[in-house]
Specification:
Layout: E1 12-19, H1 26-39, E2 45-52, H2 59-69, E3 74-78, H3 84-94, E4 99-103, H4 114-123, E5 128-132, E6 139-141, H5 144-161, E7 172-176, H6 177-183, H7 194-204, E8 209-213, E9 215-217, H8 230-252
Parallel strand pairs: 1-2, 1-4, 2-3, 5-8, 6-9
Antiparallel strand pairs: 4-7, 5-7
Helix pairs in contact: 5-8
């Protein structure tokens, strides 16, 4: 497992896990991803990147211990500025991988979907691949309130940007690093709207996007209640869409 990378001959892919105070699930889920990847005999080199986004619990300590035990396969990157989008943007812009993947630390999307996420980038000439919980072939176990929220967000984004994608916010995406670096200067949001900007600007610059169905299971641990507020979140999302639409209009001018 701890053999050096052969980056001179093989493609290199980084699996990025943005985290904030995830000490309860961090170790088990990182090891779950590590063991899965190690069992697949991928035809590319890979590494797991823990993007510690200003955690105040034991997440950093746990991440450092994992890095020490698996130095060739696990790396921690500390990014103090808040926001998942901030963490991904800062790391991806300086990354050396050919492809960067991100997934939520709760591993809500089945790891078996990794192949269908990456293969279109490697074999089919796509630039961005996004997981969708809302395609007919997707299999999901999710609360009604969260499902309704996702459908509402997507419906609004279609009105503003006339796209045909079904799920803008699923935490399971992969992009060619050189493509991201070209679109990154236009991506302004540092939080959850990052996903939407990533997709819209990739589409705007005519890069190829593919959407794949995923097997998704809600994994909120410790019986955490959903923080989704459909009315409030929809208003915030709409305001962000309006701002993004105005920015695109200025770019076109």
């Amino acid at each position: 497992m701890n053999q050096p990378f052969k980056r001179e001959t093989l493609m290199f892919i980084e699996f990025c896990l943005p985290i904030y105070n995830e000490e309860k699930i961090l170790k088990n889920n990182v090891l779950k991803l590590l063991n899965y990847c190690d069992s697949q005999n991928f035809n590319f080199d890979w590494q797991i990147i823990i993007l510690n986004n200003g955690s105040t619990d034991n997440s950093e300590k746990i991440s450092q211990e994992l890095q020490k035990k698996y130095p060739q396969k696990i790396k921690i990157e500390n990014i103090q500025q808040p926001g998942r989008g901030q963490a991904l943007k800062k790391y991806w812009q300086k990354g050396q991988a050919d492809i960067v993947v991100y997934m939520d630390i709760d591993l809500a999307v089945s790891l078996n979907n990794i192949h269908t996420l990456i293969n279109p980038l490697i074999k089919e000439g796509y630039d961005l691949v996004i997981g969708s919980r809302l395609l007919p072939a997707s299999k999901i176990e999710r609360s009604f309130i969260r499902s309704l929220s996702s459908k509402s967000y997507n419906w609004l984004s279609k009105i503003f940007f006339n796209h045909h994608l079904s799920d803008m916010q699923c935490g399971f995406k992969a992009i060619k690093t050189d493509v991201f670096k070209k679109t990154a200067p236009y991506i302004k949001d540092n939080k959850w709207f990052f996903d939407t900007e990533l997709i819209i600007f990739t589409k705007y610059f005519n890069y190829k996007i593919k959407e794949i169905p995923v097997n998704w299971q809600e994994n909120r641990y410790d019986q955490r209640k959903t923080k989704v507020n459909i009315l409030k979140d929809s208003i915030t999302f709409m305001l962000n869409l309006i701002k993004l639409k105005m920015r695109l209009y200025k770019i076109r001018k």
